[in-house]
Specification:
About 75% of the residues lie in helices and about 0% in strands. It has about 70 residues and is an all-alpha fold.
């Protein structure tokens, strides 16, 4: 027997957090644009992790910011 799904209000703060995290991506009307936004988010996370792993604890933020300006 499949358990009945509880409404989001019954789940409490966990559902509120999940809804808050998904809100920016629910605004897209086109699924392809939503997919591109999710891929871009994941690529940003991978880039940040790669920088931290490459430089260790010291990430030269000032050097990066001077390159951007």
């Amino acid at each position: 027997m499949i358990p009945k799904a509880e409404p989001p209000e019954a789940l409490g703060s966990v559902s509120h957090l999940a809804r808050w995290a998904a809100e920016p991506y629910l605004a897209f009307k086109n699924d392809q644009l939503r997919l591109y936004a999710l891929i871009a988010r994941d690529l940003r996370k991978v880039a940040i992790v790669a920088l931290v792993l490459y430089f260790g604890k010291y990430v030269p933020w000032r050097a990066w910011l001077s390159l951007l300006s």
